[in-house]
Design a protein that fits this description.
By secondary structure, the chain is mainly alpha-helical. It is built from 11 helices and no strands.
């Protein structure tokens, strides 16, 4: 009769361990942030750098309240997120299917992969002059630059993931007479989803970086424009406000994409 108590103790111990890890996952980053803010405040307090070029945490907090009070910060966040969503969504919609096609077709991959690598190697910012000439100022040039940032890396990562799937998977699929959509959804996609999620996280981060640069040059609003406008007004506190908001949203985007790895149909690829 004593045996059933053993699994219960193991379950309780497992829950306690999991809870401890969850607390550490929250407390350790908060401790690092607090230490960084204290160090920042000390540098400002002792005027290691001129106050006109190095705002204090208090100055930045006042600037944040100012932008929130007038409502412009929310508008800038919405504008930047809209552009990233459109450009990145278009890149995912077109890039992953093209990568699947290249990965499953050896001759096509050999023919097109050099061109994909060429465009992937170009800095997205090199397209800024053409983006302005072709699309003017506003949302479209930023969306175009984000698309160029994410599209080619996604194509390359997806095609490489498909090409690296063990051949035994495909042989088993043929033995079970899988074809067309069934072959794609039952074999290919489940095998490459972990690599694709990693590529999505990387390219989403790059897209979020590029939208800031694009808005500085070809935008009328957005977080990049906020930083550029604050720089022209000699408001370093607002520059830091923009930087902090950009960093926080970037971390949130990455955490949202990371949650995809916890889906039951995906997790097996990480536990192999």
């Amino acid at each position: 009769m004593a045996h059933p108590a053993v699994p219960a103790r193991d379950a309780n111990a497992s829950e306690a361990t999991g809870g401890g890890r969850s607390r550490r996952a929250v407390l350790l980053p908060l401790g690092v942030v607090l230490a960084a803010v204290l160090f920042w405040a000390a540098l400002s307090r002792f005027e290691v750098f001129p106050s006109t070029a190095f705002p204090s945490p208090t100055d930045v907090l006042r600037g944040f309240v100012e932008k929130v009070r007038f409502g412009s910060l929310f508008d800038d966040i919405v504008a930047s997120l809209f552009r990233v969503t459109m450009g990145f969504g278009l890149a995912v919609t077109l890039g992953i299917p093209l990568g699947l096609w290249l990965g499953l077709r050896l001759r096509v991959r050999l023919a097109l992969l050099p061109a994909v690598n060429f465009f992937r190697s170009l800095s997205p910012l090199a397209w800024i002059p053409f983006a302005i000439l072709w699309f003017g100022i506003g949302d479209v040039p930023s969306i175009f630059l984000i698309f160029m940032t994410a599209f080619f890396p996604l194509v390359l990562a997806t095609s490489a993931a498909v090409a690296s799937v063990p051949a035994v998977y495909f042989r088993v699929a043929r033995n079970y007479d899988f074809h067309g959509v069934e072959f794609l959804t039952q074999v290919t996609l489940p095998a490459i989803v972990p690599q694709v999620i990693t590529a999505l996280r990387v390219t989403a981060g790059l897209s979020w970086v590029v939208v800031v640069a694009a808005e500085m040059i070809a935008g009328r609003d957005g977080l990049g424009f906020l930083i550029w406008d604050a720089r022209n007004q000699l408001r370093p506190d607002l520059v830091v406000v923009g930087m902090v908001v950009i960093g926080i949203i970037g971390v949130m985007i990455d955490r949202l994409l990371m949650r995809l790895t916890r889906l039951p149909s995906v997790r097996w690829g990480y536990d192999r």
